[in-house]
Each structure stands twice: as C-alpha cells, then as structure tokens.
Amino acid sequence: MSTDLNYYPFRFHVDFSEDLFTGSGSGSVSLCSGAFSEITGLEASMEPKVIKEGGRSWGAAQRAGQVNFTTIVLKRGMTQTKDLWKWFELVGSKGYAYRLAATITMFDNAGKSVLAWKLDKALPIKFKSADLNAKTNDVAIEELHLAHEGLSQVTPPMTQLAGTGGAQ
C-alpha cells in the first residue's frame, strides 16, 4: 500500500472501550478498534423551550431545552477482528443492550491526529458487511450505525497513521 496520504483511504480511527468505575476511580478498557474512510452524523441539536410571557409583545423568551443526537454512520471500514460484528450480534440476537464508549480520531494529510470526538453509551443499530474478497484476511465493514447518548470533543491521542513513519 502506498504511504502517500493523499490516497490513504482510512483517515478516521475509531476505538471502542468500556468505561469502568471502581472504588479507586475510573478508567476505560480498550475492546476493539477499526479504521474508516467516512463518518457522518456528528451532530447535536437543542430544542429551545419557548416561554410566552404576558405583556411581552416583542417575541417569546427562549430557554435551553433537551439536546438530541443523530445516528453516527461509520462507512467503508477495516478491522483485524470480528468484534464489531460480535457486538452487534450480542445486541441484536440476545437483546442485551451492551453499550460502549467510542472515540473517533481524525488524521490530517501528514498522518498526525488532529481532532477527536467521544460518543457516550454507543449502541450498534445497523451493520452492513462489505463484499467478500478472498485476497485479504481483514474484516471489511461497509457501514456501522451507532446510536449514542452523548457527543463531546476530546483531546486527540498523540498518534500517527500506520505507514506514515509514526507509531499508532
């Protein structure tokens, strides 16, 4: 594979982890990860609460309301394991809503991490496999849809994409 990053298709790395809360503090355990070429749905919207006050004739007062998050769609990805399918299967067939934290890291043209988002309590709601190819052992994922309960920007890890001269 060429190391020219203008042609490197996987610019987004997604790490799935379980947040642990113990008596001595909190931490997380990394469970699986994957690289994706496109991610959509990083969106949050707030429904304002409109308060109509008597005697106020120049518009209603607006207050902050409930925040809603859209479904995140991870597209055209690769992973070395079948863990993302196993997670979807566990949720879908067993009815066990096992939720994970997900950190999405974006890389620039030089392969340096520049931006990261964290999803709280992510839940897989759709899994679409890519066409099968006998030339590779990697597991290709066409789409993975994630519902979640929170979106926040976090400090990106100090890593570089594989094949760009840095460690990942």
Describe, in plain words, how this protein is organized in 3D:
With 168 residues, the chain is mainly beta. The chain has a single domain, classed as Pnp Oxidase, Chain A (Roll), CATH 2.30.110. 7% of the residues lie in helices and 51% in strands. It contains 1 helix and 11 strands, in the order βββββββαββββ. It has one helix spanning 83-94, and strands spanning 12-22, 25-40, 44-46, 49-51, 61-63, 67-69, 72-79, 100-107, 113-129, 139-147, 150-154. The protein has a 6-stranded antiparallel beta barrel with strand order 1-2-7-10-9-8. The chain is elongated. The model is unreliable at 1-7 (pLDDT under 50).
Outline the fold blueprint:
Elements: E1 12-22, E2 25-40, E3 44-46, E4 49-51, E5 61-63, E6 67-69, E7 72-79, H1 83-94, E8 100-107, E9 113-129, E10 139-147, E11 150-154
Antiparallel strand pairs: 1-2, 1-8, 2-7, 3-6, 4-5, 7-10, 8-9, 9-10, 9-11
